[in-house]
Amino acid sequence: PIYPFIISISMGFGKFLSVSYHFIQKFIQIFFLFLTQILTLKILRKLKVGNILTSLCILYLGFSPALVNSALSLYSEIVTYPIMLTIILLSCKAWQSFQTSWKKPVVLGFLCGLAFIAITFVKGIFEIIVPIYFMTYAFFAMRSLIKKNIKLFINSIVFLSTLLLTFYIPLTMYKFLNKKYNGNFA
User: Fold this and answer.
1) For an engineered disulfide with 144, which of 86, 139, 149, 171 has Cβ 3.0 to 4.6 Å away?
2) What is the pTM for the complete model shown?
3) Helix, strand, coil share of the chain (percent; to 5)
């Protein structure tokens, strides 16, 4: 439902400005490409990738025919790029937060859950990725328990619980609404 919502915003602005909504939508999608470049830059900086390689990567993102085509065509893929990079950044912060108090994993679990619900509401196939993502942290939690590192175990369980509640509650509510109004629990 997110991509049709973005298109409806473009239609509203297009009607208000007396221009085609395609024109407005292209600007919104170019913004998503620009946001993708910024988030990629942030990830490359965190990985301490050299300036030359970083510059080439950011330039490629701006000139790649596949990415530019997805930014200038009416396809929802462009919206998933910055959300996926946000999930990667939040996941790295979450992984690092397990050494702190339980409060930071709660916040990061909530933000990751929101990011996953957003990307799933853009492309439904991402619903399948959440259990795979969950398994990596579940294995980490079990490993922490085996090694008797209770703090890591508790923080990873807190993160996972928050993430799953934040993801599955809105998703299930949406599916029930879809079942009520369209007859499909999807």
Assistant:
1) 149
2) 0.90
3) 85, 0, 15
Name the residue among 55, 26, 155 with its Cα closest to residue 96: 155
- Give burial (CB, 10 Å; 0-12/13-18/19+) of 163: buried
d(CA 68, CA 77): 11
Place of tokens 């988030």: 39
- pLDDT confidence of 29, banded at 50, 70, 90? very high
End-to-end, the C-alpha distance of the chain in Å comes to 12
CA distance 62 to 56: 10
Q: What is the average pLDDT value for the chain, to the nearest integer?
A: 93
- What is the residue-wise DSSP string for 131-165? HHHHHHHHHHHHHHHHTT-HHHHHHHHHHHHHHHH
Contacts of 2 (CB under 8 A, 6+ apart): 76, 79, 118, 121, 122
